[in-house]
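Why do we care about 3D structure at all? Because function follows from shape, and shape follows, mostly, from sequence. That is the central idea of this module. The next example makes it concrete: a single protein chain, its amino acid sequence, and then its structure expressed as tokens.
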Amino acid sequence: MPVDGEHERIGIIGLGYVGLPLAVEFGKKRPTLGFDIRPARIDELRSGRDSTKEVDPAELTDARHLSFTCEPAELAQCRYFIVAVPTPVDLANRPDLRLLHEASKTVGQVMGKGAIVVYESTVYPGCTRDYCVPILEQYSGLKMNEDFFVGYSPERINPGDRLHRLTTITKVTSGSTPEAAQMVDALYASIVTAGTHKAPSIEVAEAAKVIENTQRDLNIALMNELAIIFNKLDIDTGDVLAAASSKWNFLPFRPGLVGGHCISVDPYYLTHRAQEVGYHPEVILAGRRINDQMGPYVANRVARMMMTRSFPVVGSRILVLGLAFKENCPDLRNSKVMDVIATLREYNAEVEAWDPQIDTGAAKAELDFAILEDPPPAARYDAVILAVGHREFAELGAEKIRAFGRPGAVFFDVKGLFAKHESDGRL
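And the structure:
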């Protein structure tokens, strides 16, 4: 296998939350080409702007060896290829590998002998070797471990997190041969200051990724189920968790809406593979069912609270603060706030939403309910639901948020952003 050189070009396929930070870090040190199929995305990056808010304009400027393209032919300049495209699920919660297929096809059509293709997209154990490699071989006419090599290094990007960044999170690496594994590990070690962990196989690295988010999903599901139970017992969940957290080994998870493209999706990749080999996973799917019901549960709790205050839900005006799937992030993908809104609209409530983090124009084009561009007017709503804990809402404070509602209106703090006495309810 040829020896790695700092001047060998890296191609990053997919420039979203995962691919762009990678492209920027590599682009600070060596020739890097960022590829995306969306011309509008390429245009904004070339202008020095990142709509995901993961990379600052100054960081884009610092990546002086980085260029962008939406022309697949330009990737032929690269020896290394890193695939970082989304891997969602379909409406039946089955893995949707269409983007992964197209990315593998694109790479296969341009790569030459000696290429190293690394996948970062979340997949089930065995997907890289059994699904992606045949596509690479078909379109390149080359053979794995003879003409080219493959690696897997799972992404660990946490959107909106300014503390845990690509370079400060240990990077798991792997390769299709021991020599390829060493090459992949050295590649990432050149940018990840936190260090690397070289897994013994690609399948181990794939499995590590899916269980990281499956573990978190299950822990939050437990908290959500406890929140449902404690509400029926008229006990505040936050008080219970504060007391339990006084024990040194109690894990500090909290209830909430579990959406996005990682925690609420990755477990289905593992359960899909488990069912393929004849095992029906019960605990993992039970956790998914609990977390998927939390949107309607929140809506129903708010509706009951409104009725006890003589606010009819039908024809009411309800404000939802936050649409993104998590705090301090503009990403709307698979946000479970939409489930809250959908349930309220089924009750013929008029719902308006405000999220200072998102691209309001794009959201209006995608969603069919009222989205405010400016802060809401005061004393307008029968209920106010704080659905996402953005920093802007924390800075507003509970008193100003409550003032969006009419006198006596319900203020429900889904995330428990404020002290329990400052709202009328929380999970």
